[in-house]
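Have a close read of this protein, sequence plus structure tokens, and explain what the tokens say about the fold. Thanks in advance:
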Amino acid sequence: MSASTKDCVAAPDAAEPLAAAIRGIDTTALDCIQVNAAVLADARHGPGTHLELGGRVCFAPRPGAHSPLPTVEQSPTNQIEQMAGPLGLDLQTGRPVRDGRALLDLLPEDGSPVYVVGDACRMPWLPYHGHQHMDHSVLLRAVDGGTRVEAVDAYDNETPYGKAEPVVCTYHLAEAVALFDGSPALPVRVRPAAPACPQVSETLARNAADAALLLAGDGPERYAAAFRDHPDQQEACSALLLETWLLARSRRLHAAWAAHHAPGSPHARTAADRAAAWDTLAGQCYLAARRVQRGRPVPPQIHTTLVELLRADARFAMESASKGPGDVMPHQTAQVRQTVVNTVADVLGATPEAVAATGDLNRLEGFASFQMVETVERLEDAYHVEFASEDLDPAVLRSVDGLVDLVLRTSAGAEVTHA
């Protein structure tokens, strides 16, 4: 069964708050379990909340559930448990439900969403439908007085069966029941909570502690060797493609986290470079998987590069923590100016060039009180300062020069003027 074309719309064009939250999310940086929890977090706490998922950079392979090959993929229940704090959500996992009606009976009458992990093979808005069984999240809520069910899914990915894109689909109740009948679905009740937002320096220190353990052992080498030496190279290359896809998305999310907290900083720039390197390896693994399917040998460099990237990530984590926040966010005037410009651009969804060329930020589309407050809060978080209330004059906050002076004056404790 599939939804008719008129019942599914691209999420970014929808006006409903959940769909509206998707517009502020780079959905290509999140996996299929994270992405819809991220939508809930941003809808509840504001744009950018989901980026807290990207602070920690981990490499913790575990034995595969149905394969001798290791995997960095976590179980949905573990991911849900770990996502709750950073996202500011109380996620209460229920028991798996196989009866579609019993699942939909859990939907609140007020239209509040329930986060559900089900089988992608049963979800007709996905290219996996009818092709591949895999855990996949979706947000379900009752609409039209409970006579219809809305499915919101922000997943974004190119798959062997076509492209998955963010959508909002609406089904008659009987249709929705049939979609989930006979297949286990994990319902998760969602309530708001206070987001756990550790200082940047604390997060970098935790990353460095993990990195020190990685560098002291041979984990990356053993991980790569498991795929290189597996007797079935078609299976090994397919698995490695998923592994590098997951690692690349996590590094892309970390780069977004760094750009959010420290826009224009050396750490943010290097994190973006690291993410790009992982994207390149994932592309190479895709080519390798296709070559092996055609009976051709595996390019040996993919395993060597895998080890090199894992170790380079660890060295980067160690260096970032050793420099400290002052080096992650330099206080030189030119760099502060770039940070201010990048922060305003990120808040507004504008280009840095447009922000830098504008004397009065009020002239930029979308710059109003809310955006002004968010800009101030981001700069305070980035520089670990609190601006004095008497310094928050609207005239100061409406110009790049004013914001630069405010940062420098507050962080240095002295008056700073521009030539």
